[in-house]
Amino acid sequence: MADEQSMTGTIWINAGEMSGDMHGGRLMAALRRQAPSLEYCGMGGPEMREQGLEALLRVEDLSVMGFTEVLGHIPRIFQMLKRIKSELAARRPRAVILIDAPEFNFRVAKYAYALGIPVFYYISPKLWAWRTGRARFIAKYITRMISILPFEIAFYRQFGMEVDYVGNPLVDMVDWPSIDHITPVPGRIGLLPGSRRKEIEPLMPEYARAATILARTVPGLEFHCVQAPGVEQSRLRELWQTDVPLTIHGPLNRYAFMRGCQMLIAASGTVTLESALIGTPTLVAYKLSKLSYAIGRRVVKVPFVALPNLIMEREVFPELLQEKADGPVLAEYALRWLTDADAMHAVRDDLARLRTMLGAPGAPDRAATVILHDLQTRRPA
């Protein structure tokens, strides 16, 4: 630890989406505890900036999802990559840490590799879902792969690769003593439409259609929406095309709010694993463009899209994708839970088991230790 305490230099950290910024902020905090003299620059969002990142690029400016959606942003994406390439060459950081977002970060990995800069990948890309051939890319360009999902170990081993499994950082992000006592409010439905425009715009109107049906069928329901960082409340209200009242909450204390809901309807993504850990039954919804979805069906290699279902190896959270992610279908599935207490209890029992499968607290600290120990053997050039 003494060597790490005295370690100096700059580390480049690259997050490509808001969930990556969330994990990046906690990893930076762990790195700062173990090596307080290091400095950080790169691409991040509000949580990483709060931890002292010199944000040369903002993660908020790279918020696209899907194959065809990316096409409209290609000029901006390549401009950002060009900036990163030139900054890496000029600054020569001691290391590069990449967080998820493989379509963007794999290019950054190649830039760093060409400069002889070690590359650490925190929150390994979901190659097990699609493009498994990219494992060869990782074997060549990535110095250390750090995984947060238990089933990834076997996947990488089949390619002859060793992975550092550190447990899941979401376990650390929940203040369990402050939420475990919270009892769900009957009839309170939480809505999480995502953080990207391409998620929110197709889903929020369908949430509103579902709310209209549910409010007419089950009197006394409350509808609450969690506003993701960087999302304008005015836009959420504009997309809420119904007279059913909606309460919008900021992201602060979202875990306590989610715990207090009888059920949630959420965009597919990290939030579904958060809701699973917290113990709240969740309907998973997602819509892509028709072309993106058609391509995705051909290349995706796993039976589920929601991480809780992949971990449990069955559909604990119903996955309502594409044409199923519309108001009437969402309302139909929600009513099954709202009118069947036994079904709801069964889901909560499954989620209690899942919580035990994601490792002990301390994942960011363990990841920081892996990175710093490796760097300690590599004296700055």
Automatic annotation (TrEMBL):
<dbReference type="InterPro" id="IPR003835">
    <property type="entry name" value="Glyco_trans_19"/>
</dbReference>
<keyword id="KW-0441">Lipid A biosynthesis</keyword>
<comment type="function">
    <text>Condensation of UDP-2,3-diacylglucosamine and 2,3-diacylglucosamine-1-phosphate to form lipid A disaccharide, a precursor of lipid A, a phosphorylated glycolipid that anchors the lipopolysaccharide to the outer membrane of the cell.</text>
</comment>
<dbReference type="GO" id="GO:0016020">
    <property type="term" value="C:membrane"/>
</dbReference>
<protein>
    <recommendedName>
        <fullName>Lipid-A-disaccharide synthase</fullName>
        <ecNumber>2.4.1.182</ecNumber>
    </recommendedName>
</protein>
<dbReference type="GO" id="GO:0008915">
    <property type="term" value="F:lipid-A-disaccharide synthase activity"/>
</dbReference>
<keyword id="KW-0443">Lipid metabolism</keyword>
<dbReference type="GO" id="GO:0009245">
    <property type="term" value="P:lipid A biosynthetic process"/>
</dbReference>
<keyword id="KW-0328">Glycosyltransferase</keyword>
<keyword id="KW-0444">Lipid biosynthesis</keyword>
<keyword id="KW-0808">Transferase</keyword>
<dbReference type="GO" id="GO:0005543">
    <property type="term" value="F:phospholipid binding"/>
</dbReference>
<dbReference type="Pfam" id="PF02684">
    <property type="entry name" value="LpxB"/>
</dbReference>
